[in-house]
UniProtKB/TrEMBL annotation:
The keyword Oxidoreductase applies. One of its GO terms (molecular function) is ferric iron binding. This is Protocatechuate 3,4-dioxygenase alpha subunit. Keywords: Dioxygenase, Oxidoreductase. Gene3D superfamilies: Aromatic compound dioxygenase (2.60.130.10). Belongs to the intradiol ring-cleavage dioxygenase family. It holds the Pfam family Dioxygenase_C. NCBIfam families: protocat_alph.
Amino acid sequence: MTTASHHGVSGPTPSQTVGPFFGYALPYETGPRVVPGWRPDAIEVRGRVLDGAGDPVPDALLEIWQADGNGEIPRRPGGLVRDGHGFSGFGRCATDADGAYWFTTVKPGATGGNAPYIAVLVFARGLLKPVFTRLYFPEDEAAHASDPLLGAVPAERRATLVAEREGERGYRFDIHLQGERETVFLGF
């Protein structure tokens, strides 16, 4: 929160909505490629960001944060500078005109008592702050039962946090910002 001064009186200023200005400065060419697609352990995560009416959000920005395949969280610099072989655990992708995004990454290993997941942040017009969610993997259903966060989500809403399998190395994860199929978002 910033403060404003008018005639020597300071006070809080209102929050500002994010975007769509971030599309000009934050996306970068290798942002969606957390790992190169040629790696044998590479997976592709793709989907769309949709508004409450089911229409695409063409100017959203997504960030992902995750552990590597062994469940280790990277703790070294270099999220922007990639050598084509390492793993930073971070990716960023702007949506296109159809609200679509994609990432090439690895399936994370489990961390702590959690089922494997990818943390997802969505920045979009009309939001005062980014919204946070998680992407879980459908083949980890047994681990979902003991995941503390999934256990706190009402059973009928959990499916909004689980990606759909697409082929051998692909996953689809659509994010609904509002409406009947709204994705579960987390408060921090």
